[in-house]
UniProtKB/TrEMBL annotation:
<dbReference type="Pfam" id="PF00629">
    <property type="entry name" value="MAM"/>
</dbReference>
<feature type="domain" description="MAM">
    <location>
        <begin position="45"/>
        <end position="223"/>
    </location>
</feature>
<dbReference type="GO" id="GO:0016020">
    <property type="term" value="C:membrane"/>
</dbReference>
<dbReference type="InterPro" id="IPR000998">
    <property type="entry name" value="MAM_dom"/>
</dbReference>
<feature type="domain" description="MAM">
    <location>
        <begin position="225"/>
        <end position="257"/>
    </location>
</feature>
<dbReference type="InterPro" id="IPR051560">
    <property type="entry name" value="MAM_domain-containing"/>
</dbReference>
<dbReference type="InterPro" id="IPR013320">
    <property type="entry name" value="ConA-like_dom_sf"/>
</dbReference>
<protein>
    <submittedName>
        <fullName>MAM and LDL-receptor class A domain-containing protein 2</fullName>
    </submittedName>
</protein>
Amino acid sequence: MTFIFLQVTFTASQKTAYRLGGAVALDDIELMPGLCPSRKKNAMELCTFDAHDCGYTTNWKSSEKWEHKSRLNSSSPISAVPEEDHTLGTSYGGFWFSFKEKGDMGTQTSFLRTPIYKAPKTSMNCLQFYYIVDDSGSWFNWYRSTKEIYVRAIINYPYSKTKNPTWLITKVQNTTISEWRYAEANVDITEDYQFQFTAFIESSKEVVVAIDDVKLIPGRCPETGFCDFEEDICSWKYGEGQYKWDRIRASSKGIQK
């Protein structure tokens, strides 16, 4: 009988970037037989798009498609593309985006589709994601115009002969500043399904539509304004004043500012 001894080495490195810092920690390490389960086939797993594209697919037409910005590509030649993702809040995070370069007024529609997922155990679920719809772009956008920009979410049932595609989120419109915003929709799922995100752009400006942190959770969506602050601050904003709020994780005895 031959024994093979293995050693696993974890290496922590620091890139030269003033925005990155802090500590690196490891916990709950386990080596199990067999292949790792695919996270691309589970809509209940949070898709951060940092390590991979979560199995999403887009248009074949190169001029009207979504692109995956991964952590391996920390910059983009397109000025309108967000500098930071929602998950990490750094340029090293990932997300999906669709863009239109400046030029003549015209329309552009691009589609981003998830893998086909198995029907969940509970029929009522909540689709959650963060998005940016922005036409601020570079400084010379001021003399150009925008008629309409939005992103929509739809659910398809590829194997069903009776269920039709259903709009989950009618429209989330462009904003005056480029920041990640939260969107959610209740969805009743009883068959195998697939989500589709549609970006519509009608503008002569340089425009970008982006999504990040897509997840399906069991049950109905929380009421408007609800936040348990377990994962983040739910797009709440810190106000002006003498004192400042901090989000504390009791389990780690640390403070996330």
